[in-house]
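Posting here for the record, re: S-adenosyl-L-homocysteine.
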Amino acid sequence: MTPAFEDILRKPDLDREEIKLLLSAEGDRMKALLRRALEVKLARLDNCVHLRGLIEYGNVCEKDCLYCGLRSGNGNVERYCLSDEEVLSCARLAHELGYGSVALQSGERSDPAFIAKIERLVREIKKIDGGSLGITLSLGEQSDDTYRRWFEAGAHRYLLRIESSTEELYYKIHPRNGKHSFQKRIACLESLKRIGWQTGTGVMVGLPFQTQDHLADDLLFFKRMDVAMVGLGPYIPHPDTPLYRLRDLVPPAAERMDMTLRMIAVLRLMMPEINMVAATANQTVDPQGREKAIAAGANVIMPNLTPGEYRESYFIYPDKACVKDRPDQCRSCLDIRLAAIGHRIQYNAWGDSLAFTKKAKG
Ligand code: SAH
Ligand code: SF4
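Prediction output follows.
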């Protein structure tokens, strides 16, 4: 290891060239990067992992993202939408298991019935044990008015991945069919921040045509947008999607995993106090993927609470991990897996982003 490399790992502000150098680290250099990111995380955020019980609300989607199995153009999906009672019983279960927060995710819909139903569900979830559950939403692009309604109903964190912060690459993975706009996506993130949401974004790693320059720019984008949370995960080719045709341009699973880990680690150096999700997609490409992501600097896990019979219909990408696990099995499995890497779950807490709460306090 050169002293210069060690120095970069300790710099508070990394420039593009330094980020690229870190993203290309292999062998001992990669180990040093991950070690440093873990050290920074433990110093700022301790060894706590926060949970969000994931409720996959429905797979009806208006969009046509070229990588995702839920895209409206995919006729091979049986579409579903959970009933109010199903959502509320998942939320009650999250509370009983001590998860502290739920995340409601679904395909994108903007019809008034959907908007009103989410608003009502957020209010109902907030009634559980006097508002003890934190609520994250991940329901795609919406109007200012909708974001405001859901925020006022009591949800307070929103995840909307930019998917790629390079406009040219964005349009290689989203069709120019009038339904997808890079500028609109950025405007949505700005709207969420303005309204007061803890705003999260992220990208997929290992997309066709994606280069190290794109990934370095993604990290700089997160910093520039000053987001409170980031979710990063490997891209997983789905056979029923148009992007599958380009699967030969996708790096092997081990490389996607390593690049995801380096992205998480470098971002932890750049933004030490944000929340970072160890995405389930990590576990699909590597059985230890989620734990590796935690050890590289992530601090949030989203265990699945969707009722068993719907899980296989929420088929964003193939071979999703833990599809068959029951929530109680999942909880003890996580406890054991995290203890093995020196981490512990913080039960019964919202687990907000420290970066955000510090700023809010001024
Ligand atoms: N409809 C919402 C939320 C559901 S999709 C939205 O798009 O924001 C949630 C995330 O799944 C997306 O942001 C995307 O990054 C990820 N995703 C979709 N298809 C994927 C694939 N094939 N491999 C890995 N992640 C994928
Ligand atoms: Fe729909 Fe989200 Fe999938 Fe795009 S990524 S097709 S918006 S569910």
